[in-house]
Amino acid sequence: MNNISYHTDQKNMIFRYFERNNDRQISASEIKEELAVANQKIGLATIYRHLDSLEKQGVIRKFADESGKKSCWQYAGGNENCSGHYHLKCEKCGKIIHLDCGFVSDIDEHILTEHQFTMDRAKTVFYGTCAACSQYI
Q1: Where is Zn(2+) bound in this sequence (predicted)?
Q2: Chain mean pLDDT for the chain
Q3: Cα–chain-centroid distance for residue 91?
Q4: What digits encode the pLDDT tens for the residues 59-102?
Q5: Burial class (CB within 10 angstroms; exposed 0-12, middle 13-18, buried 19+) of 73
């Protein structure tokens, strides 16, 4: 029973880390480093199992990083319709912005009508620079 509780505690720590960092994507290795700072020894395989479970629960979403070689996850727990909109990602700081904008429907319609192509909002991320980082350009 302690083993089950232990894994629940680990999963809760991972969940809380996502809550605190809800505006950016997080890698499994970053979670491992964060837990090590908190004196929690946890293997990457266990972290991946917890990430898979949280993803299936709809608490986090999985993305590929810019290289397409590494997976990252983002907190989606506070946004039930996270797959219903596009995302903006700052290339400078990594911040993720949920693009809840009516104008996007016009883009979807244009792409469908003019290019016979249906966009997948859940998998589409626009890259650029956020307002905060734009101040330093």
Answers
A1: 90, 93, 130, 133
A2: 84
A3: 14
A4: 888 877 767 778 889 888 655 566 778 888 888 887 888 888 88
A5: buried
90 is an annotated ligand-binding site residue: yes
16 and 3 both lie in a single domain: yes
Q: What is the mean pLDDT of residues 25-47?
A: 91
93 is in an annotated binding site: yes
Q: Is the pLDDT of residue 131 over 90?
A: yes
| Distance (Å, whole) CA 41 – CA 53 | 19
Residue 89 class from Cβ within 10 Å (0-12 exposed, 13-18 middle, 19+ buried)? buried
Length of the chain in terms of residues written: 137
Residue in this structure with the two tokens 């290289």, named with its chain if needed: 67
**Is 72 marked as a binding-site residue?**
no
Q: In degrees rounded to 5, what are phi and psi of residue 31? A: -65, -45
